[in-house]
């Protein structure tokens, strides 16, 4: 069974910077600081699913914060009450009081300035029939400007966590809720000269389309089609206001942002603004309030699916890798051929004052082998060219011909001059060893080298 997290809209002012703690298994401890007029500081100790404790803090400490400790995991927060108000020297509302209530019937002290428990300002309550609060979000700078919460509930209809963002806008109208889907395919929006009057959504679920509509349909609709499933809505920015001659506060504009960076705008950007968005998630459904127009709007969000990797064509494993190691130089090359190219290689290396016979690579054929012997004072330059025949899907092919170069001369071209030509060169280096791939024939050949002045 999955989980759904209900994100309640912020209560308080518009000042400060927005923050969002997201959700956890629960809250273990709350710290609250205050001055003479407001809540200046909050700190939350959260517990993750694996038992790890995570701390988040906001605002500034002006007095020693007081704490409220829960008996985690047997106790959790089920309600937060508070107030917000304008205070001296500040242009916007700030949080002026906070009270936390738990599943065991306990109530925290009243944090914030109060006289005999009496607080000033607009009161608010976050509570939903005993649901567990598992995270907070808000706004803050030098004080706590606004606060919101996350509730959690089991969701039998989904295996992945969903977020239901509270509908914002007006408080009138009938509640509607489309629920959650695989995604949104098409939106049709109606408007008059001051508000959004109609919304129609075409959703997709289980390969089938389902259409839901709300508000009052006008004569002309604007249509926005998404490239589903390759495109999804990332966020909705909306404004709401109470237009002249109308009783209700309603949605006045909508601005969408999609995963393909398209940003259509509908209506008139008048009034207060809010944003429906959850980072790393996609919008999969709407809910809200309706009457003669759209009074309020909220949304459901789900994680953006991890892209399915495009299968990479398998590369055939051809030939066995071999490596002769590194020596002081090369004295002799034994090279065998067959009807299509090089079938056999063996190198005699110089090590100190002696010689080391390298391993046999490939297989000798009835054609036999040729030799290329280096003279005293001669060394193999780090230069190798020849021909190869590509093998489909492999990073190399069969070696068809080879030619070696020394500091004095070139060897003959061993093998067949057919296929594609190649050349490997490292300037001012000499070859000190070879490695490659082979079975009965030679598939790949590379060399090790070092600067020619060394050794």
TrEMBL record:
Keywords, comma-separated and alphabetical: Lectin
Domain Jacalin-type lectin: 5-153, 162-303, 307-451
InterPro entries: Jacalin-like_lectin_dom (IPR001229), Jacalin-like_lectin_dom_plant (IPR033734), Jacalin-like_lectin_dom_sf (IPR036404)
Gene Ontology MF term list: carbohydrate binding
Species name: Thlaspi arvense
Keyword Ligase: no
Key word Thylakoid present: no
Protein name per Swiss-Prot or TrEMBL: Jacalin-type lectin domain-containing protein
Coiled-coil ranges from the UniProt annotation: none
Family under the similarity heading: Belongs to the jacalin lectin family.
Pfam families in the cross-refs: Jacalin (PF01419)
């Amino acid at each position: 069974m999955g989980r759904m997290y209900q994100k309640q809209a912020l209560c308080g002012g518009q000042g400060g910077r927005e923050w969002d703690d997201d959700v956890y298994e629960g809250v273990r401890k709350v710290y609250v600081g205050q001055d003479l007029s407001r809540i200046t500081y909050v700190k939350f100790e959260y517990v993750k699913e694996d038992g790890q404790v995570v701390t988040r803090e906001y605002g500034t400490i002006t007095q020693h914060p007081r704490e409220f400790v829960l008996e985690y995991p047997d106790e959790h927060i089920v309600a937060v009450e508070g107030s917000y108000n304008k205070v001296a020297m500040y242009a916007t509302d700030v949080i002026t009081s906070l009270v936390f209530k738990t599943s065991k019937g306990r109530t925290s002290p009243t944090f914030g300035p109060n006289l005999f428990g009496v607080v000033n300002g607009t009161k608010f309550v976050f509570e939903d029939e005993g649901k567990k609060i598992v995270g907070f979000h808000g706004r803050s700078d030098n004080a706590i400007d606004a606060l919101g919460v996350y509730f959690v509930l089991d969701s039998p209809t989904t295996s992945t966590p969903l977020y239901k963002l509270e509908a914002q806008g007006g408080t009138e109208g009938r509640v509607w809720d489309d629920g959650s889907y695989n995604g949104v395919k098409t939106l049709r929006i109606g408007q008059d000269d001051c508000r959004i009057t109609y919304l129609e959504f075409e959703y997709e679920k289980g390969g089938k389309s389902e259409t839901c509509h709300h508000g009052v349909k006008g004569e002309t609709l604007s249509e926005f089609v998404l490239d589903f499933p390759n495109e999804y809505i990332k966020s909705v920015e909306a404004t709401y206001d109470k237009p002249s001659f109308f009783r209700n506060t309603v949605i006045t504009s909508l601005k969408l942002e999609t995963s393909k960076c398209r940003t259509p705008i509908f209506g008139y950007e008048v009034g207060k603004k809010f944003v429906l968005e959850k980072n790393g998630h996609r919008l999969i459904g709407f809910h809200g309030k309706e009457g003669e127009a759209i009074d309020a709007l909220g949304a459901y969000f789900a994680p953006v699916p991890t892209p399915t990797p495009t299968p990479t064509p398998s590369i055939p494993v051809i030939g066995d890798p071999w490596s002769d190691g590194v020596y002081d130089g090369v004295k002799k090359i034994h090279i065998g051929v067959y009807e299509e190219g090089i079938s056999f290689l063996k190198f005699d290396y110089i090590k100190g004052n002696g010689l080391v016979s390298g391993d046999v690579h490939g297989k000798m054929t009835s054609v036999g082998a040729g030799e290329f012997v280096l003279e005293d004072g001669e060394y193999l330059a780090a230069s190798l060219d020849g021909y190869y025949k590509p093998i489909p899907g492999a990073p190399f092919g069969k070696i068809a011909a080879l030619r070696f170069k020394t500091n004095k001369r070139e060897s003959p071209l061993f093998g067949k001059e057919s296929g594609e030509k190649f050349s490997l060169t490292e300037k001012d280096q000499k070859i000190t060893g070879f490695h490659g791939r082979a079975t009965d024939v030679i598939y790949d050949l590379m060399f090790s080298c070092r600067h020619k002045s060394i050794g």
